[in-house]
Write a structure and sequence with these properties.
By secondary structure, the chain is an all-alpha fold. Helix content is 87%, strand content 0%.
Amino acid sequence: MEKLIEVVDNLKKSLDRHEKIIKIKELNKKIKNDKELISLIEKYKLVKDEKIKDKINKNDLFREYKLSENEVNFLILEINAKLKEITNKGKCSL
């Protein structure tokens, strides 16, 4: 069990240094500092107006963030596939 905890800790440290994770964290900070974008997002949460949603989606910073978010999701899929391989190797086949 201790070996598993060590492997998971190493994975977490590796992910913290991964360029895609670093990039999305930086973009998240930029978005939090963009008062206009934050205002639009908060307003959209309240009224669900499609015009506001379009303004948000046209924002370059938001679009860059969504692209980065997709890249992180693909990274997660890769990790899950590897974990599935590892767990399948431990099972005996009949």
